[in-house]
Amino acid sequence: MRELAPVGITGMPSRTAEYLCRQIARLVRGGSLTPETCQRIYAFCGIRPSDAQWRQFLIPVLSCLGLLSLVAGAVFFVAWNWAWLPKMAKFALAELLIVALAAVVWWRWYSTLARSALLATGLSFGALFALYGQIYQTGADSWELFRAWLCVLLPLALIARQNSLWFCSWLVANLAFQLYYNTLPTSLLDLAVSDSFTRLPSVMLHGYLAVLAACLIVREALAWRAITHHPESWLASRWFSRVMAGFLLLLLTGIVAGNLSDWGGDIPLPYITGGWVIALLAGYYLYRYRYQDLCILTLGIASLTVVGCALIMQLFLSAYDTGDLFLTGALMAFWMGVNGSILLKWQRKLVDKGPIDRVPARLTLLTDTLRQQGLLSASQVEEIQQHGHASDLPWYLRLALSVGGWVAAVIILLLMILMLYVADLLEDPNAATLIIPSLLLAAIAHVLLSSQRDGHHHLGLAWAIAATCGLISGVLLQIQSNDVSFIMLSSLTALPILAAMAVAMPNRTYRFMAITALTFFLVLAGHSLARLYLSPTGGHLAVSVLVAAVVFLWLWTVSHQLRLQAGTYAEALHPLLYGIPGGLILLSFLGINAAYLTDFFWEELQFSTLQSATGTGIAAGLVLSALFQKKSSRLLFSIITLPAALICGAAALYAPGIGLGLWLILMARYQGSLGLLVVSGGFMVLYVIGWYYFLEVILLQKSLLLLVSGLVLLGLAWGVKKVLPAQIGGASENA
């Protein structure tokens, strides 16, 4: 009962509650449950947090972000070579942060703040060692710094008993190995996609891979023991094991694919190929029959797909003639389709034994509790139990199928172009050249996506993507003009096609992609038109208003999602909820990578003005939405809605992605979605890295900005602790 009652909910809701609420949303769409009752169930299960639950979530999140910002600021401060400061003062500054963090750990032991401070302490030692090497110029190689850092991280990981410190230790150990061989590429990803690993002695290479495999085996043994005897233990978490398995498979896949292809070098590595085969067979047996884990099975199928495509290219692409190209493309598309169908078949069989992300006993207890509270009836519980769970694809499977769909779509387009080339239709292209074949592809995609079989949806997604790209390309070829920039022309062309295809294709994943692209191209087209017809000030204002309107529409959809779920536009709800912020994320990345795009298109695109207007629009949209919701008494985040909008808006004015990322973290908690929280955190990390790389200020200013940001975040955590209540009220407190 402790997990079910609101008092047991800390940070994020349980996976059982999250799973059940996804099923309950289907009752709203079917009309057997009212939106008001669904809102009460969400509040009881912790999906819609009360003020006290917001407190439990915000304090650790803000504290963690603040401490990591302080550590990053300290690293930048060390990297800035301040010759005027005495060396003892430099050491004092670096060690003062470590001592302060250690004091927090000692003061708040067993609290979430102490766990975050311990992680920050381990990271701070890296800055201290770098400072030591910078001042004394010991002549030590970079890998020795990481080795010393690892010697500090490992004891801290043993003390802390948390996956984050073990992950840092594992990452630092891999970096130390890479830096030890300084003749290798600059990243471990390069090792996986090139033949550079073959420069290592065979014994060393085999030993490195064996150590990675041994670490994975030990971690999995501890994880499954914890899942069996102590399911609440930190060892029972699966994400670290999946990262380790994914990295090992990435390395093995790159080496094996290189062995099978021409770019693999002259050094055969048969033992690694045999090890890859053994790893796949052992993984299939363990994770398919003994310890069901669809995520690792998905990683294995992805590895098998890449190696199979490399083998197909090697066997059939001996001569670059038309027949070989067509056969190679068709076989690769078929191979990816077969592997996707296998994944869907496994997913259906695994959920027949019970949904993967919940415990049957806990789900039964939760539904019984909801019945006792009068929130669910016996017939509604039976309807939930009879629902086919095969359509509830986890995020990693959706991601794998989406990536496979894009690759298959590119192959389908290339095959279509190849057929047009054979028919001599590319010499004098007209409207019928690409548009009519693309419409045929769209018709096939509609038929496949309208089918009730998941395998047909997987295939239909690839055909729909290919049809969309073909239609946009075909229309662009017909209306190309030297008087209009390519960016503006492609954006205006894509808008009606994406809108029409989103309506025509009955698939949630495709519609999400279409809404994401539609949001991106809508703002991009508005920016291009504003630059052409308006003054700089007027253009900035127009784009800001457009972005603010998009943000307002998104937040209105979020606040009315349960009513929309029960209405006519239920199928459009999910694409709008996640497609609009997806488009805004793309716009945020566009602003910080403007220099690369300017070089690519050979023209001055002035994306810096787009970034400024996007930030202003996000800030205005958040604040206006908060004021509108306050007036209509439909606040998303209870009493923190308006302060959160002001803080995130202020951050967006300076860096659009930071303000948007902070708001997405809040949105993840409001939706009770751990997946959205991970995506939001990953977006924040990638954006901040890119933003700081292109930020045209010196390292001292960067470090001071990070240090000030860390102090502000810690101050906000303190403010949340003082303002929001610590005790949780009734189940429907924030209904």
How much helix, percentage-wise, in residues? over 70%
Specify the oligomeric state.
single chain
Rg of Cα set: 27 Å
Order of helices and strands: HHHHHHHHHHHHHHHHHHHHHHHHHHHHH
Number of strands: 0
Span between N and C termini? 22 Å
- Mean pLDDT score, rounded? 81
How many helices? The count is 29
3D shape: globular
Largest beta-sheet details: none
Structural class: mainly alpha
The proportion of strand residues reads under 5%
Taking pLDDT < 50 over at least 5 consecutive residues as the criterion, the unreliable ranges are 1-9, 183-189, 191-198, 728-735
Chart the SSEs and their pairings:
Blueprint: H1 15-30, H2 35-45, H3 51-79, H4 87-107, H5 112-136, H6 142-160, H7 163-180, H8 188-193, H9 202-229, H10 239-260, H11 270-290, H12 294-316, H13 322-352, H14 360-372, H15 378-386, H16 395-422, H17 431-450, H18 454-479, H19 486-504, H20 508-533, H21 536-559, H22 561-565, H23 573-592, H24 594-601, H25 607-632, H26 641-654, H27 656-671, H28 674-694, H29 699-723
Structural descriptors:
single chain, 735 residues, mainly alpha, disordered C terminus
Characterization of the model:
The protein has 735 residues and is mostly helical. 78% of the residues lie in helices and 0% in strands. It is built from 29 helices and no strands. The protein has helices at residues 15-30, 35-45, 51-79, 87-107, 112-136, 142-160, 163-180, 188-193, 202-229, 239-260, 270-290, 294-316, 322-352, 360-372, 378-386, 395-422, 431-450, 454-479, 486-504, 508-533, 536-559, 561-565, 573-592, 594-601, 607-632, 641-654, 656-671, 674-694, 699-723. Residues 1-9, 183-189, 191-198 and 728-735 have low confidence and may be disordered.
